[in-house]
Structures are given as C-alpha cells and as structure tokens.
Design a protein that fits this description.
By secondary structure, this protein is an alpha+beta fold. Helices cover 46% and strands 17% of the residues. Strand 1 and strand 2 form a beta hairpin.
C-alpha cells in the first residue's frame, strides 16, 4: 500500500503542478499562506485543472457508460489515479479468535479463571476432596467461562459485521457537484480532487475542501475534534472544510482538495 501511495503521489506531481501530499498538509496545518501564495482558492483550482465557478472542465469529462475500468467511467480516471479515489480504508476486521482473546482479558473473566484453577488444584490434590468430587466446582467455573466468552465473542463479531455493512451504505450518499458549469448529482465515492461541491445545512462533507463562496456557512466538527460548537466558515477566514463533518447551517460552494485515505477522515480511519 505504501508503494502505491508513492507511485500515486509521483503521478500527481507529474500531471498537476501541485502534489497530493501538499494538499494534505494544506488542510492538516490550515496553511493560509501556502494557499495565498498560489492565488487563493481560485488559483489552486486552476492548478488542479478546474475552475472555481464551473468545476472540472468539460474537456476532461465524458458520458457515463460501460467501461472495462470502473475508475474511468466518467473520464476522470487519470485524475483519480493521480490525486486519489474517494474510498476509505477501514481497519481489517477482527477474527472470532481475536475477539475471544480480547474477551478473556476482562477482569471478571480473569478472576473466574483464577478461581477455577485454584478450585481444580485443591479438588484434585486433596484425596478427600477428590473422593467427594470437589473438583466439580472448578469444572463448573471453567464451563461458565467458556460459555460467557463464546457468547460475548459471538455478539461482538455480529456487531462488527453489521457495523461494516452500515459503513458501506453510509459512505455512499448523494453529493451535489458543479462539473463543466452544470450541477450534477453523484455518489460520494465519485467525488474527485478539483471538483466544486455544493453544500447546505444537514450535508455530510464527502471530502476535505476549501470554501469558495458561503452564506452563513457553519460546520460541526465534533466528529473530528470533539468540539460541539458550530464553526463559521468563510473564504477569507477559516475556509477549511473537513471530511466526515457536517454542515449545521447555511449554504456554500467549495473546492475539493483531498479525498479518501488522504482526507482527514480517511487518516483517522486508517489509524
């Protein structure tokens, strides 16, 4: 995976005058000076072969249709290969065995295991206890531990499978974009770096972006920072929009600068 990132980053630097890593750093550091040195949001859009008003140019787009390469179904395959796809990489699922080991680390389970060992040792070591089947108590505790661990692990495994199914649906919602001067609706996974995205109250941000125009635009970044206070976003002051956060108020348009694993939400998921 690391090799793929290097290759993709190098491709991005070759096709566009700005490297994907620079765009990630721009959002992470909220580097207004770096943005200003490149002509602001409008200048950065030009560097990304896009337009702050019309979005990705018509010359790069093509009609959606059957294609041997799904990444290129709308003509934006080169852009996605260079600057990234808007797909998130979730941590690998835990196996049932690893969930069992995790359950065994519970304090209550550890106490029961210790109690079972002591009971079995006394039950088998003492002739009197052995004749009276004193070890049965220890065996009963072992049986209880096995049942509790198996049931708990089964529940956790089922929850994890359902959680992944929900995430696959949650990550693929409709997004309003401006492409070639026209407003289009696409799935979140089709959003590209350089797209101009329209946002309004209640929307979940599908990618990291920079505000182009805003009218009383505020976002809730509690999913990222823990801050429950809505934050005002303006082109001239704090234009940075973070993927995974929600628009709590207002409307606006923004330039997408980082998607998928390179977005702030993607970085958190991969950790």
């Amino acid at each position: 995976m690391a090799g793929d990132d290097v290759e993709t980053g190098a491709a991005g630097a070759g096709l566009y005058p700005v490297a994907p890593a620079d765009l990630v750093t721009l959002v992470e550091d909220r580097n207004a000076k770096w943005l200003a040195d490149r002509g602001g949001v409008e200048g950065l859009a030009t560097l990304l072969q896009s337009s702050a008003t019309g979005g990705i140019l018509a010359s790069e787009l093509k009609e959606t249709g059957p294609t041997p390469d799904p990444i290129d179904k709308d003509g934006l395959g080169k852009r996605r290969r260079a600057l990234g796809e808007n797909r998130f990489k979730y941590p690998p699922p835990k196996s049932f065995f690893s969930l069992m080991l995790q359950a065994c680390k519970d304090v209550t389970i550890i106490i029961l295991i210790v109690a079972a060992i002591i009971s079995l040792v006394i039950g088998f070591a003492s002739p009197t206890k052995r004749e009276e089947y004193g070890y049965i108590e220890g065996l009963a505790i072992v049986l209880v531990v096995i049942v509790v661990v198996l049931v708990g692990s089964s529940i956790d495994y089922s929850k994890e499978q359902k959680f992944r199914q929900l995430n696959s649906v949650k990550d693929n919602y409709d997004v309003q974009l401006v492409r070639a001067g026209k407003v289009v609706s696409v799935k979140a996974e089709e959003v590209c770096v350089g797209d101009v995205m329209k946002v309004s109250a209640g929307d979940k941000l599908a990618a990291d972006a920079l505000v182009i125009e805003a009218s009383n635009l505020k976002t809730n970044e509690s999913a990222m920072t823990g801050e429950v206070i809505d934050i005002s976003k303006k082109p001239e002051k704090d234009p940075f929009l973070l993927s995974g956060t929600t628009v709590s108020e207002g409307v606006g348009t923004c330039l997408v600068v980082a998607v998928g694993e390179r977005s702030q939400w993607g970085v958190i998921l991969s950790q």
